[in-house]
User: What shape does this take?
Amino acid sequence: MIEIRGLGMQYGRLTALSDVSFTVPAGEIFGFVGPNGAGKTTTIRILATLMRPTAGQALIDGIDVSENVFEVRGRIGYMPDFFGVYDRLTAAEYLAFYASCYGIPHRRRGAIVSDLLELIGLPDKAGAQVDSLSRGMKQRLCLARALVHDPKVLLLDEPASGLDPRARVEMRELLKELKQMGKTIVISSHILPELAELCSSFGIIDHGHLVAAGKLEEILPRGAGSRLRLSVASDIDVAARKAQKVIGVESVKPVGEGELEVAYDASAIEPDDLLAKLLAGKVKITAFTPVAENLEDVFMRVTQVGPPT
Amino acid sequence: MSEVLVPSNEPAPDALVRLRRLGGAAAALVWNPIVEKEILSRMRSWRAPVMISTFIALLALVAFGALAVVTAQQNGPFASTVTAGAGLGVFTAMVVVELLLILFMAPALTAGGISGERERQTLDLLLCTRVRPGAIVVGKLVSSLLFMVLLLVISVPLFSLVFLFGGIEIDQVLAVVVIGVVTALVIGSFGLMFSALTRGTISSTVSTYVGTAIFLLLPVVLPLFLSALVPPSPAAFSGGGPGQSIVMMLDPFVAVGSTMTPPGQGAQFNTVQRGVSSGSVTCVGGPGGVQRCTSTSVGLGTSPTAIPGGLAPGLGSTAVNPAATANSDMPFGNVRLNGDQIQAGPLTGWRAWQVFALFDCTIAVLALTLSTRLVGRRALGRRRPAMAVAPPNGVPPAWTTPPPGV
Assistant: This one.
């Protein structure tokens, strides 16, 4: 659905993007990760037909984004990393305005607007001034705006930035719903755990170069950085010693009251095997959670910033 | 023979593409979501009622003020004879003030058009839709023009006062309406152009006011200044009315002044008698059956004798010195007028308001084309986006600094 080949962007002497290539199959969510200024926004803006790349080609649904701009615009919904709302318009009018900008006839707009407000969970805010909405609501309204013309592809630039945890969860649920509707989504973010859960494939970008791209298992160097957090009811030191003996476990460290963090080589042992072995060793485990910082670790390593040590 | 790979040139837009573009431009005028949205949010703001009230209040003040002055000038407050000139005087005063108000309001209405979208960060969102850059510019302009037309319509009852006196031809009224709308169009286009050119609404507004002032003064001041430098050549006089530069016709005030100048005006002073069209404004019967021919028509304080040659047709051509008229030869295309009709040259027979409308509409179209280009370039520009230079959190972009090693 989205195909990027050797994309390059040069601002004077600055190279914002160089030789970025990836593909996103239809119906997938692609997570675009990178530090500030790495070229995420530039890539998304090129896909959104707002910039012309200085090298390479980007295709959406087989159409070149810098050649056939108007065809592409009907197929994409773009949500920038800022709100972009008008004052003195109600939420419903705001959506209806953009619907008309996409040439949707007047008689169909009302139904579309109410459906979208329903989707984003703001049906009772139809008559509310856009200004008066909270940040999370505005963000969702902006997502709804990107959906007015029912695009196949969604380009979301930091959709969760600046949201409180609750609004973030709501946004994530919304994106899952959109995935179920069959949308192809490109989403850039630096809130990595969320992306890990949401996305089917990733691209990690740094200094304008695509450092890694593919499914999470492909990006993750096998074995490195897999961690499991265990709540242990039995003696913690015994549990730690037993865990240490399991083949594939790299390190064990107590992290809190009755909790252990077990780092293991995912290529040597699956997490369920690890748990089974511990349980067989009479370690009472009341709870376990995979530590969802895998991607973050990869991210830190490949972008060469490194965690503060 | 060596084979050389020649990169194929981009195909030139064929007739069909051109036709489609033209169709798109026409569609932008008919179907334009921007207009609806702009009007909706404009009329909801507190500014709209304030602007409307101020406009009508100032105009009413001038109307009744001028009325009082004119009636006092006639034979006392209870004079039964009021001349045609009275109506024309009040009318002209009102038109000039209305024009001034348009000149003040048009920049305020349009100077934030594009820059406001940019500041609200909604321009990108709009450009992402199927709305073309031209439609955005036209939509902004049309919505502002409609507001100004609303003001003009609201002022009609005030203007109806003048018709009690008579003395104003319907074609003068129409000419003035055209001049008003075209002025709003050209100044509105300036506003949008500066709005597309500059970064913020404030600088755009200031630029538009300065540009408007230059636009009003330059076409009049420059020819006058140059003609004062050049010694007058009597041979240039070819008859007709007082001479003036065709460039002056860019100015709405000159156009209004010419429109208000009765057709016989030039002929009064010149031996070369031109056909005086019927319906000479100066000799229309007033109430009470007294017909008074007066040429003290406008009298807005302009002192033509102080200016060499030709502002005369502008405002108050009454005291034009025939000698000065005859001698003046303006740079940038000298024209002579009889009333408001051009007497010689390629535009012979054109009326001042027609020339004004032609010139200023052309300028407006140019300004709008430039604005569209600027907005469109933003859509697919090679310009550096603000985001890449300075991310909002102030962290310099990563590619400008060498990566810290692990």
In short: Chain A touches chain B through 53 residues (CB under 8 Å). The longest strand of chain A covers residues 14-24.
